């Protein structure tokens, strides 16, 4: 699969500088590219690699054209150009083709046109798979679950009963949608399970990484808005609502009944406590712990960066003395105030 630079330029909205008739077949970094490949420059710290690149073409911004020694595709946002070119040249195979003989599809399930179901997948009663849905090997689609058109599920994904996934979603392997939320009532020294009666509703164009878990609601639904992107190994608890176009990186967790606004960015290893509201356009940096509502957009942090162990031990020793130091400062302030009164 190869394209001329002119074809790629039309696809990504770029202007060709050089020979638009040369063909490229794949993407590569500036340092590793060969003359049959296309590279990109979106980060200035890699600018020094541009002059020596062997790429057949490079996607660059207008201010970098003069430094490009080869053919160029010029556009204001080279990183977006890279993304669109990667989509065009993507050679990832489909999770499944046709309906495998070993797949088990209940006779009451409804399958749209061009549905593909992989080996050993199970589609239970009342499930609805819209047109062009692809279900990978070993997946489980529970009773009355709904999967929107053009959505793709990779291998070994479980979608529990009644859950709804919108159109053009992509879910990576081993993810679980609609497992029980962590609901238990303590009584007489024992934990008593509370059946989780809600669903998970996932909007359109949502992408979810591998081994992520999204719990069903206890009574109301857990909701993931349109355009959200969730990384690998994320935990979304019951009744959580995440607004449109929010991005969440790996190993972050959101506890039950919290609400995250639209267009938020949640970095890795972030923890959000339960029953908390986070405004639109909030950025949480890595390892931030959110214990109360954030009602204004902005960047929030609380994780402590790594430092040499000797410095950490010294700081920790001082931290243990902080309470005594605070008391002494208060006593000194009180003594100074009394001395001022005497004068």
Automatic annotation (TrEMBL):
Q: What is its EC number?
A: 2.3.1.191
Coiled-coil residues: none
- CDD domains per the record? LbH_LpxD
Taken from the UniProt entry, a GO cellular component term is: membrane
Report keywords, A-Z: Acyltransferase, Lipid A biosynthesis, Lipid biosynthesis, Lipid metabolism, Repeat, Transferase
Q: Does the keyword Ubl conjugation apply?
A: no
Q: Can you cite a GO biological process for this protein?
A: lipid A biosynthetic process
Q: Which positions are catalytic residues?
A: 238 (proton acceptor)
Catalytic activity reads: a UDP-3-O-[(3R)-3-hydroxyacyl]-alpha-D-glucosamine + a (3R)-hydroxyacyl-[ACP] = a UDP-2-N,3-O-bis[(3R)-3-hydroxyacyl]-alpha-D-glucosamine + holo-[ACP] + H(+)
Instruction: Show the Pfam families listed in the entry.
Output: Hexapep, LpxD
**Stated family:** Belongs to the transferase hexapeptide repeat family. LpxD subfamily.
HAMAP family with a match to the protein in the record: LpxD (MF_00523)
Function, as annotated: Catalyzes the N-acylation of UDP-3-O-acylglucosamine using 3-hydroxyacyl-ACP as the acyl donor. Is involved in the biosynthesis of lipid A, a phosphorylated glycolipid that anchors the lipopolysaccharide to the outer membrane of the cell.
Protein's name in the database:
UDP-3-O-acylglucosamine N-acyltransferase
- Species the sequence originates in: Thalassotalea algicola
Lineage, highest ranks first: Bacteria, Pseudomonadati, Pseudomonadota, Gammaproteobacteria, Alteromonadales
């Amino acid at each position: 699969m190869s394209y001329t630079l002119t074809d790629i330029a039309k696809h990504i909205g770029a202007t060709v500088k050089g020979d638009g008739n040369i063909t490229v077949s794949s993407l590569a970094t500036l340092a590793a590219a060969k003359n049959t490949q296309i590279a990109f420059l979106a980060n200035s710290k890699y600018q020094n690699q541009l002059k020596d690149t062997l790429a057949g073409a490079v996607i660059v911004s207008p201010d970098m054209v003069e430094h490009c020694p080869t053919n160029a595709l010029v556009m204001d946002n080279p990183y977006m150009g890279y993304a669109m070119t990667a989509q065009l040249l993507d050679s990832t195979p489909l999770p499944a083709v046709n309906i495998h003989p070993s797949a088990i599809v209940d006779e009451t399930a409804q399958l749209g046109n061009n549905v593909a179901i992989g080996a050993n997948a199970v589609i239970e009663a009342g499930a609805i798979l819209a047109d062009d849905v692809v279900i990978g090997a070993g997946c489980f689609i529970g009773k009355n679950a709904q999967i929107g058109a053009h959505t793709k599920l990779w291998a070994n994904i479980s979608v529990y009963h009644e859950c709804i996934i919108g159109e053009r979603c992509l879910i990576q392997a081993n993810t679980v949608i609609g497992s029980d939320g962590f609901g238990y009532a303590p009584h007489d020294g024992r934990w008593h399970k509370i059946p989780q009666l809600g669903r998970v509703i996932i909007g359109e164009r949502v992408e979810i990484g591998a081994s992520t878990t999204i719990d069903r609601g206890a009574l109301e639904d857990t909701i993931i808005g349109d355009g959200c992107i969730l990384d690998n190994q994320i935990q979304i608890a019951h009744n959580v609502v995440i607004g449109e176009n929010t991005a969440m990186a790996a190993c972050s967790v959101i506890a039950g009944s919290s609400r995250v606004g639209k267009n938020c960015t949640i970095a890795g290893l972030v923890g959000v406590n339960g029953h908390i509201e986070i405004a639109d356009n909030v950025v949480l940096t890595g390892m931030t712990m959110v214990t109360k509502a954030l009602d204004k957009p902005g960047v929030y942090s609380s994780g402590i960066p790594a430092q040499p162990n000797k410095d950490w031990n010294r700081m920790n020793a001082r931290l243990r003395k902080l309470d005594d130091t605070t008391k002494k400062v208060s006593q000194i302030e009180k003594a100074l105030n009394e001395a001022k009164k005497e004068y």
